[in-house]
Structures are given as structure tokens and as C-alpha cells.
Amino acid sequence: MEDLGVKVAMRVTAHRGQMVEGLVKLSYSSRKKRWIYWQRWSLSEFKAVEEERRAHAEPLAQGAMAVVQVHPTLGMSLALSSLIVRKEITKNEGVTKEITRQNVAGKAGPGGKAGEPSEAKPVNGTDGADGYANIFIQKPDGNFDGPFPSAYKLEVVEFEVVDGNEDGILEFGEDIVLRNIRVRNSGWCTKVPI
Amino acid sequence: MHQGSHLTVGGTPSPSSAQVTMDGESTDWLIAPRTTHLLPKSIISGSTVRLDGRFTFRAKRPDDIPVGRPFEVEDAFKLRGHMSGIDRVIRGFHQPRAIKLQYPVEMTKPKYLRCLTLGQEAVFSWKVVPLSASVANI
Question: Which residue among A86, A118, B31, B64 is buried most deeply as judged by most CB within 10 Å?
Fold first, then answer.
């Protein structure tokens, strides 16, 4: 086993609660060859990520598929749910070859722990403003009068009662007259400031 | 117009096309006339109109008058409005006005001797109480 001294550079691109997502850049270079691959990763219960850590890898043969495993001492579990894209560049006798390989990533890792219950205390919102309705009257010419806040209300408000002999006593068999009858349109009225 | 003035706004005027008619309603003791009066149209909200006309009710006579106490009954004048076009009675047009029908005078029980001897003269007396000043000269 050769310690290749692979450099792992991680860059956080998103935080989703306890989940942290980012990119891992694994790069190796020697006198003859250099390879780089990027992998999307996500960590649950992510504590801390150092920008640069060492990893172990299998010895690389020219043209061989490189399988790089992040050493457990890194203290992280990579969720290999995404596509691994690996680019390998070799130089041999003055000829440079660039090989790009893709691997389907492994299954996603287990989900994180459930979050704590929310401490938010929802309360009722304030009442909305009262609604209102207006009445418009369509005139014979098609135009409208209004708006009016209410309809008309006709009511008898007053009248005089006169008994037949005008003695003030309403007697049996007597004619009783109602006169000076007054009718009012008592549609609801209100005062508005002007 | 000074500051703080208010403008009174109200409901719609009464209909300009539909005709409102008014009549009386008979009750237990009052016979309504067959008269019908027309109300002016387009009465503006908040305004009052005077009806050009009158209603003459006839108070019925009692068929049976109880003896021993003043007789009077309570009843009410009822007026109603009707609107053409929609052909409906106008609700809340009139709150019935209570009245009391009675006789203009009250008479107490007559006083008299319970027994008389032959040839004796007796005087019957009773009191008549007028209920109105205009009948005090009875």
C-alpha cells in the first residue's frame, strides 16, 4: 500500500439543516501522472471539515481504474449517491493522455436524525376589515345613481287621531279619523367627514 | 365649510317607478275604510312627506256588554303599505298604534232601599262620571 498523499479539498456548497453538501476534489500528481476527480458529497451531522486532509488510495497502475477511498479517520461518511466523474491525465514518453471515467455512485447513506420539535407558538391572525356593500340605482337612460350604503325604508312616523265627536274618547260605534299622516324614508343614514 | 364637518349620506330614495299605496287594516274592533292613498314617489332618504288624505275607521259596537264593571277594550290602528311592481306588502311600514275603546261616561251601581212598605216612596240614586271634559254637562 502506497501512501499517495492524495489531497482532499472540500468545498461546502449548501447547508440543509443538519445536512451539508459540497464538492470533494481529490487530486494526485507525480512526476509521470496526475489525476483529479470531483465528487459530490453530503454529510449528515457534519461537525467540521478541514480544508485539506490526507487520504489513502490503492497504488495506481497506468491506465488502471483508480479506486480511491476516503480513509475512515477522516470521520465522515460520504454519501455516494451521485455520479463520480474522474479525469486521469498521463504523460508517457512525451505523449499526454487524458481519460475521463464515470462511475455510478453507490446508494445514499442513512438519513439524519429527526430535528427537534419547533418552539414556535402560532397565534391567530388579526381580523380582517369588515366588508361592505353598496347599492347603485340604474336610471332609465342606463346611467347609475349611487353608491348608497342601504336601501330605502318607508315607515309611518306620525298621524293624528280624531274621534267623531272630538271629545277625546274613542267610543264604540264612532267614526275615528286618522289624518296628517306622515311617512318617512328612514333608510339607514350615516355621517361621513368632509 | 369648517373643519370637522360631516355629510349625512343615507339609503336610496324610494322607487321612482313603482307606486306605493297605503290603506288601513281591519282588526277585532276597528273596521278599516276601503280608501287607498298613493304615496309620493322618490322620497329622498331622511325626508318625511305628509299624506294628502285621511282614513276613517269605524269602531264596532259590542254585542254583549258585561254588567257590573266599566266596559272597555284595547285595539290598535294598523296601516299598511303596498308596492306595485313587486306586488308586496312593505315590511315594517307601520308599528300598530294601540288605542282604547270605551264609553264616554261611567255609571256607578244604583243605590236604593232593599224593601219598601206599602205607600212608601223610594229614591234610587247613582253617580255618572264623565271621562271627558266635553261630556261634563250630561
Answer: A86
